[in-house]
Design goal:
Layout lengths: L1 H14 L2 E2 L5 E2 L5 H18 L6 H15 L9 E5 L6 E4 L3 E5 L9 H16 L2 H22 L6 H40 L6 H11 L15 H10 L1 H10 L8
Parallel strand pairs: 3-5
Antiparallel strand pairs: 1-2, 4-5
């Protein structure tokens, strides 16, 4: 066990100097090829379990918005976009350049600009290597729990169980959830820049989250959630709007996706 622990901790220290596109240092020690394989497998599972949307106009619309966003990337080749027939108000992007959009999202994203805000956000997750970072964090947390268990002579004792339970709770609320919220905030910021560069109205990202907030009654407090509150997201986006508007004005593209 100690050999495994040492290898994981050393690997984590070696790659801790990796940075996201926005300049934040991150811990991400999984091989990119392995992450891509995991993403492709997960995407295939979703395709096997969820029907693709049959409406050609809907598919063309989502494809148009996504292609406009991807055109801003230095390497825009090899992405696969699928629209899923499902009422979930959601979209996702996975390592391996896979993008999924649920038809339920189109009931909340009222125009091409708002849809671009969501898809741009998801693309930003992939560009920022957030999937790798989350897997790496989970591995280190699991290793830390193994270390804690090894410290107690009787890991089944009540004292040990209370301590390990507190460690797990502290890890959840102190590390994993804040990092998840950091990922969401980072993807919001980078996604805002992507949509602006693609020629979509950045202010519509705020309108999108106003729409999202109308259906979020009963959401958990922010500190217990993997996502920032809608109010936090709106405030953060507003604080970045001046720069986003500059990017929008500089863009020569004005998509017309219908």
């Amino acid at each position: 066990m100690w050999k495994k622990i040492t290898l994981i901790l050393v690997a984590g220290l070696i790659v801790s100097c990796a940075t996201t596109p926005l300049g934040r240092k991150q811990l991400a020690f999984m091989p990119a090829e392995q992450m891509d394989v995991m993403g492709v497998q997960a995407f295939q599972t979703i395709k096997d379990e969820t029907p693709a949307a049959p409406n050609s106009k809907v598919n063309s619309y989502v494809q148009c918005v996504t292609n406009a966003l991807l055109s801003t990337l230095q390497d825009s080749e090899g992405w696969e976009i699928v629209v899923f027939e499902d009422e979930a108000v959601n979209a996702f992007a996975l390592p391996g350049r896979k993008i999924g959009v649920y038809t339920g999202l189109l009931n909340v994203a009222e125009n091409q600009h708002q849809l671009a805000a969501v898809v741009g956000h998801e693309i930003a997750h992939v560009l920022s290597n957030h999937g790798n970072e989350r897997v790496s964090q989970q591995m280190l947390v699991q290793t830390g729990m193994e270390v804690a268990q090894a410290i107690f002579s009787n890991p089944e004792s009540q004292t040990a169980q209370v301590a390990l339970g507190a460690l797990g709770l502290g890890t959840q609320f102190g590390i994993l959830l804040p990092f998840s919220r950091k990922h969401e905030t980072e993807a919001d910021e980078l996604g805002l820049q992507i949509m602006a560069r693609a020629g979509f109205q950045p202010q519509e990202s705020v309108n999108l989250w106003v729409n999202m907030g109308k259906g979020s009654e009963g959401a958990p407090p922010e500190f217990m959630s993997t996502h920032p509150s809608h109010e936090t997201r709106i405030n953060d986006l507003q604080s970045q709007m001046h720069y986003a508007q500059q990017l929008y004005q500089q863009s020569t593209s004005r998509p017309n996706c219908r």
